[in-house]
Write a structure and sequence with these properties.
single chain; mainly beta; six-stranded mixed β-sheet; 10 strands
């Protein structure tokens, strides 16, 4: 079972940048894909971005396209989410998760890291 730990959250102002990290431990980082999700207060958790391990293909929610970039350093068993030009609506708890194979959904959720964007 993989254990995921997110870090890098904090309080920033609109227009600022922040980089989140997700470190994996417990077993070889050999899943199909990794992803970032977020949950704003009173709302459901939603997809933010994903990256496929073998191809490096990335996918983004429309709300973050052009502002966020997901990347992975598999030698360090870590993925990142670079967030630029942040907006108040980006405020949420950010979670990373793994997708073990193409046949299953994302799982093995981390504990989350709070991101707050003020005006």
């Amino acid at each position: 079972q993989v254990h995921l730990v997110e870090s890098g959250g904090g309080l920033v102002q609109a227009g600022d940048s922040l980089r989140l990290s997700c470190a994996a431990s417990g077993r070889t980082f050999s899943n199909y894909a990794m992803g970032w999700f977020r949950q704003a207060p009173g709302k459901e958790r939603t997809f933010v971005a994903s990256i496929t391990r073998n191809s490096g293909r990335t996918n983004y929610a429309d709300s973050v396209k052009g502002r966020f970039t997901i990347s992975g350093d598999y030698a360090k068993n870590t993925i990142y989410l670079q967030m630029n030009n942040m907006k108040p609506e980006d405020t949420a708890v950010y979670y990373c998760a793994e997708r073990k194979t193409i046949l299953v959904d994302f799982g093995s959720w981390g504990q989350g890291t709070q991101v707050t964007v003020s005006l």
